Amino acid sequence: MSSDPLSKEICIEAPPQVVFEFLTDPVKMLRWMGVAAQMEAKPGGIYRLNPNGRDIIRGEYLEVVPNSKVVFTWGFEQPGHQIGSGATIVEIHLEPRGSGTWVRLIHRDLPPELRERHAMGWAHYLSRLRATAEGHDPGPDPYASPEIRHG
Amino acid sequence: MRPEPQRRRDPTATNAEVAQRRFRESFAGGKISARRQSHRLAAEGQRAESLKVRSPHTTVEQVLKALAEPQRLTILRLVGSRELRAGDIARHFRTTRSGISQHLRVLTSAGLLSQRRQGTSRLYRVRQEGFGELRAFLDSFWEQRLARLKTAAEEDARKR
Lengths: 151, 160
Fold this sequence. Notes:
Chain A is of the alpha+beta class.
């Protein structure tokens, strides 16, 4: 059973092309999320991210519109996770707002009992994305610890 | 096996006497009488009572012990820049809520976390003053180095 999609919005003082790079370039991705990444941002391309040195998030890009939209499946590679590889879908929409970008993230098909944890997680990561894309150092990521439960 | 005469069951003892003897024996294997045992416990209680007023300063050792646990370090990182509810902190971990509560107690009593109530929940955040002793401890080594550098540099200057 899944709940209503989880939706998070944030305004970033950086143009959409800058934000888009932080979502699709693995080197730039790691500046705000994860400790290792592999991503081919094109439909059918792989999305693989190790957030904490322990778990591996795995998915596949479904839709990639430069500077505007990224959609990928999202689940965990290792057995034992409630969300299996490809079980949920993450959509990220980027829209220009003045000199910045309005970012809307939608996470679909999450099990209801995991919703609150993911809401907390995305709020955490989106604020790190904002800091990074605006040219600041987001600082060490407490979620990158293997002690932190992902998924 | 050699029989133990004093432990042998006395057929004339009533159930109440047997129960009383077992109760006495339950203190320190029956070596001390129940009366002496209760005196000893009272004396210990008084000693503990006299130590109830403690210095508000924690020791470097206490701080290091509190830090030397991966989950506790992670908790400190989580509440380093924002205040979080105990339940939200626990939600980040795989372990049980009670285990995380125990870690929160250790960190709070080491002075590394501050705690306040809001409704039915407790909010935690890092207490920066709690790191003062440890910082001074670490700085002391650095200052020794600097002092040595000063001495060495001055000696060198005199030789020239």
